[in-house]
Specification:
35% of the residues lie in helices and 21% in strands. The chain is of the alpha/beta class. The protein folds into four domains: 192 residues, 2-Layer Sandwich (Dna Ligase, domain 1); 141 residues, ATP-grasp fold, B domain (D-amino Acid Aminotransferase, Chain A, domain 1), CATH 3.30.470.20; 128 residues, Glucose Oxidase, domain 1; 169 residues, Phosphoenolpyruvate-binding domains (TIM Barrel). Strands 23-24-25-26-27-28-29-30 form an eight-stranded parallel barrel, surrounded by six helices. It has a seven-stranded mixed β-barrel with strand order 15-19-18-17-16-20-21. Strands 9-8-7-6-12-13 form a six-stranded antiparallel beta sheet. Helix 14 crosses helix 17 and helix 17 crosses helix 20. It is elongated and about 95 Å long. The N and C termini lie far apart (64 Å).
Length: 808
């Protein structure tokens, strides 16, 4: 049969070139069944009504002139949109199917029932407009979907409702705004066998990071029950981040992040057909929907789908609770981050912080201030002032006009793939989703500041706080012989900087992850029975979820945090410094006071290498080593190098290397390298001996200046004396570089001085330092300074060769 004349086509008869026949959504399902089934990607079978069936429906019922006449009343204005849309939809719902179309739908459904060996198979009925799911046009979510439809009569009624949904108010408005002729767009109905995910779970995955555009991860969201709860944003789902470049290695488990969502409700089958929302049992809420292996399998499918389509993808998946099988139920091009210029970015910096009124997942990376406007429904939309902060429980497509006028959006429910998150990204509006009780806490807040510029957590602060906007053009910085690297601490913020012209990460601060993602003193986890403070015990149990292996909790959290930071620059190096808390800072961790000595001067006390080699901290340091080993060998981020801070003597150096080896981190084995901070004059005086023990130096200019000049860096009364440019400090830096290079050992510097002072950057280049590591927002400017300094010395490398000498 000529496909152009067909009224119904099975999915395996269509492909992605058939969008004009069956719409992008259905064409994509057919494309995957025809081309990816052999590679293990499973898609439930089904069929689609064609554009011809839709046009036959209009023609048989003489609807086209009636629709055109009704829509003509909107010329120049949408004042009558509601009444016009209602009249068109009513006309369609009151019309009968042409005999041939009805017969074709009944026959297609009967074939599906036979293939499922069921008298009345449950199907999903989805609308697919013939102009939707194109990279340049996002019609997603504008037409209707009906789930758990059983029986041919119910199917025909659902198809009729799908036809009518082509003329919802929001769809009419969208087409007018984007220049689509209403009657040139046809509606295909996809009828697909339902996956019993009501008995298991479902969700959405993207083949890039939805907040930053970082292309090397798959984001998987999962909730119990049918996937509509994730798509609609009615729950906070589980979230997995999987590192794509390592998915081909069967010996690795490259899951960078696995966070459990609250999943308070789920959508299940209703006995009479259709669906209903129910509360998720408490025991089920705390359980992950997917195993790691299932998340990895879905991610491999996602990568294969992306490769096939040649563009980042937005994919819906489902797990059958009766068979345990996984399926892909939809796939469409991602239309926001994939079109955003990676080289053009605005960095927002909050200049001060205030009282936190609400927090949730950050969508986007911007900051906005405005009056909080709490809305529980769409009544009186004209009262919403442009630039206000929209605060509501959740959004759906009807909220889009209000979202377009908002300075920022805050919702109580939803995850990164909820309607609020997706639309906010598309509109370029910062949003905080999953902010519990926001409609209550922000009801009388007045002016607030919404910040999505602090990593994955978004904050709503009281008052209008000052912030800066700075455009950054990544990828246009000059090539340099000196490596220009980044200092990073937060795994949450790591992906924000992926497009910067960085040579890697020169300093990843382990203590930041401990302080923010773990919060508990490692010995309080290992020796939980020794924690006497009852409040601390309760907090530890809550944070670890009552986990028996509390040391394992520390290792898992820290390993994933380190892996996420390293993934952002892979395969370029990521130098991770072991925890460099002082005793007072360790004591401030939950349960820490019983395990830390009181010191008069913690800055010069029990820190760094002396701690790692002490029996007092030995078991806790083993956890840090296990985390590094896990990140490198199990997750697979072999670009991680370790760095030892505050190593006073050669004996301490030998002791730390022995402790590392004892914990499975042997220098040189599997390419593992160990660096040392150069922040004590003894590191310079004995530079050649230290160089024989370590693979590189990283100058900590703050401590080196402090200990060289005898000036407390925090002493305000002596601040005029504290300067890295002091001749004594500069002489030590120059001497260290010369001595280390004599041993063919590289030297870097991690600090803010090169960012603040072009002369200091020039001095480092002239001293032939191998790398400079600065804060990300300074990186482009510092590279410019370094390039200028190298050009002045005639030492700049040719463009296109950023690889640096030695081991950086």
């Amino acid at each position: 049969m000529n496909e152009q004349e067909a009224l119904v086509l099975t999915f395996d008869e269509i492909g992605r070139d058939d969008g004009s026949l069956v719409g992008g959504k259905n064409a994509s399902l057919g494309e995957m069944i025809r081309n990816l089934k052999a590679e293990g990607v499973r898609v439930p079978p089904g069929f689609a009504t064609t554009a011809k069936a839709y046009r036959s429906f209009l023609s048989e019922n003489d609807l086209e002139p009636r629709i055109r006449e009704a829509l003509s009343r909107l010329e120049g204005s949408e004042t009558d949109l509601a009444s016009v849309g209602e009249s068109v939809r009513s006309a369609i719902l009151e019309s009968a199917f042409p005999e041939a179309v009805e017969a074709a739908i009944r026959e297609g459904y009967a074939d599906l029932c036979r293939s499922e060996a069921r008298e009345s198979a449950a199907v999903a009925v989805r609308s697919s407009a013939t102009a939707e799911d194109l990279p340049g046009a996002s019609f997603a979510g504008q037409q209707e979907t009906f789930l758990n439809v059983r029986g041919s009569e119910a199917l025909l009624e659902a198809c009729r409702k799908c036809f009518a949904s082509l003329f919802t108010d929001r769809a009419i408005s969208y087409r007018r705004r984007n220049g689509f002729d209403h009657l040139e767009v046809a509606l295909s109905v996809g009828v697909q066998t339902m996956v019993r995910s009501d008995k298991a779970g479902a969700g959405v995955m993207f083949t890039l990071d939805t907040e930053t555009g970082f292309p090397d991860v798959v984001i998987v969201n999962a909730a119990h029950g049918l996937g509509e709860s994730v798509v609609q944003g009615t729950v906070i789902p589980d979230e997995y981040r999987v590192f794509k470049p390592l998915l081909g290695r069967s010996d690795l488990r490259p899951v960078l992040e696995r966070e459990a969502g609250s999943k308070e409700t789920k959508i299940v089958y209703a006995e009479e057909g259709g669906t209903r929302e129910v509360e998720t049992p408490p025991a089920e809420r705390s359980r992950f929907v997917l195993s790691e292996e299932e998340a990895l399998r879905l991610s491999r499918w996602a990568v294969r789908i992306e490769e096939h389509y040649g563009t980042p993808m937005d994919i819906e998946w489902a797990k059958d609770g009766e068979t345990g099988d996984l399926f892909v139920v939809q796939a469409r091009p991602e239309t926001v981050q994939s079109r955003r210029k990676a080289s053009s970015r605005t960095v927002y910096t909050l200049k001060e912080r205030g009282e936190v009124l609400a927090e949730g997942l950050a969508v986007g990376d911007a900051v906005a201030s405005g009056e909080a406007s709490v809305r529980t429904d769409l009544a009186s939309p004209e009262g919403f002032k442009r630039g206000s902060i929209l605060v509501t429980e959740m959004t759906d497509p009807d909220w889009v006009p209000l979202m377009k006028r908002a300075g920022a959006v805050v919702t109580e429910h939803g995850g990164r793939t909820s309607h609020a998150a997706i639309v906010s990204r598309e509109l370029g509006v910062p949003a905080v989703v999953g902010a519990e009780d926001a409609t209550k806490t922000l009801a009388d807040a007045g002016s607030v500041t919404v910040s999505c510029a602090e990593g994955e957590t978004g904050f709503v602060y009281r008052g209008s706080l000052p912030f800066e906007e700075e455009p950054i053009e990544a990828g246009e910085a000059p090539e340099t012989k000196t490596a220009v690297m980044m200092n990073l601490a937060s795994p949450e913020g790591a992906f924000r900087w992926w497009a910067l012209p960085s040579d890697g990460i020169g300093l990843a601060r382990m203590e930041f992850i401990v302080n923010n993602a773990i919060r508990v003193h490692p010995l309080a986890l290992l020796r939980f029975d020794e924690v006497e403070d009852e409040e601390a015990r309760e907090r530890i149990e809550r944070i670890t979820g009552g986990r028996e292996d509390k040391g394992g909790f520390f290792v898992e959290r820290l390993a994933r945090g380190l892996a996420k930071i390293a993934a952002s620059v892979h395969p370029r190096p990521c130098i991770v410094r072991f925890s460099d808390f002082k005793t007072n800072e360790y004591a401030g961790l939950i349960g820490g006071r019983g395990f830390e000595p009181a010191e008069e001067n913690p800055m010069l006390g029990f820190r760094g290498a002396s701690r790692y080699t002490s029996e007092r901290y030995r078991d806790a340091f083993a956890l840090e080593c296990r985390a590094v080993k896990t990140a490198r060998e199990e997750i697979g981020l072999e670009n991680i190098k370790a760095m030892v801070p505050f190593c006073r003597t050669l004996e301490e150096a030998d002791g730390v290397l022995e402790a590392l080896s004892r914990n499975g981190l042997e220098r040189g084995k599997g390419g593992f390298e160990v660096y040392v901070m150069a922040e004590i004059p003894s590191n310079v005086v004995l530079a050649r001996a230290f160089a024989q023990r370590f693979d590189g130096f990283s100058i900590g200019s703050n401590d080196l200046t402090q200990l060289t000049l005898g000036v407390d860096r925090d002493a305000e009364v002596l601040s005029h004396l504290f300067s890295e440019k002091n001749p004594a400090v500069k002489d030590l830096i120059r001497r260290l570089i010369e001595e280390a290079h004599a041993e063919e050992t590289p030297v870097g510097l991690c600090g803010q001085a090169p960012s603040d002072d072009p002369d200091f950057a020039r001095f480092l280049v002239e001293a032939e330092i191998d790398s400079i590591s600065v804060e990300p927002d300074s990186l482009a400017a510092v590279r410019e300074k370094v390039a200028e300094a190298e050009a002045g010395r005639g030492g700049a490398r040719k463009a296109g060769k950023r690889k640096t000498e030695r081991r950086f």
